[in-house]
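Q: Focus on the shape:
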Amino acid sequence: MSPGDPLDRLIADWLDNTISPEDFRALDARLRTDPAARAALRRAARFDSALRDWATRHELSAAWAGADVAEPAPPLTRAASSLFRRWRWPLAAAAAAALSVATYHFGTLSAPQSPAPSTRELADGTVVELNGAAVITSDFTATERRVRLERGEAHFTVTKDAARPFTVTAAGISVRAVGTAFNVRLADTGVEVLVTEGQVRLQPPSAPAAPAHSTSAEAAEAAAASGRMLAARQRAVVALTSAAAPEVATLTPSEIARVLAWQHRLLNFTATPLGEVVAALNRRNATQLVLADPGLAALRVSASLRSDNVHGFVKLLETGFDVRAEQRGDAEILLTRPP
């Protein structure tokens, strides 16, 4: 590549899912006509995670999906070569499907769009982020709050009410909380629960019955064992096709951001109190903003930003609103007024 060639930046932005529509079109055009660019992208996309994302998140055209017989490229390592062989045809098929859509739309490379994420506020003030065509139903009484996830994926920021526990069910699996935040995804083969704040109790479809001769203590122990407590940053995957125990893992902030990436969209704020802006960003991100000075909550902010651009918003506060930011650990930024 010649000095000043933007190809490396375009590929990096594409793999990072931050590429603009204009740069996307430029990269696609380059890949159609430049064998060296195709080789560069294949080298950059050797990692299995990037290859896996291709079929579900990216739509580059099929004009370059097949092998270029005469294309010069350095030899791959054994592991990279295995990954490439493993994913070559799924990638080509996904790209071919994208090309057929692009042709139908007269070269705009626009795929059929799923419904955009939406926000719904329940009767108790709980905020629910719905992923695309997700469907929920709710049934609130004086003693409990129940929500059923009929299909899709939803993130719940639950209003605290100790007298009325909040329970979400999906395919018979229950997630119970009092005041916390968590994400539930219902798939054909299982239910995935990710806790982003607080704790929840995960309950399988049916609790095992205690033996008839068991004592009350044994019965209580059996009941406790039928559920599983999940803390913040923990994700559980419950299979619907087997009786296997849930698979539980603790995710990093970047992994959480990846799971919740569907929530991110352009947010527009006009003279909005900073406390409300921070709450909206915290619902959608693993990195949490903390207002150490209560007076900052009333600060009026006008901005348009992607909901995952936490650090960009912090820079805006520092440069335009005289706010001081202090990074604390991997997932917390403290906002204060300068002394």
About this structure: Residues 64 and 95 are 9 Å apart (CA to CA). The first strand starts at residue 118 and ends at 121. The chain has three domains: 7-104, 118-252, 264-336. The two ends are 50 Å apart (CA to CA).
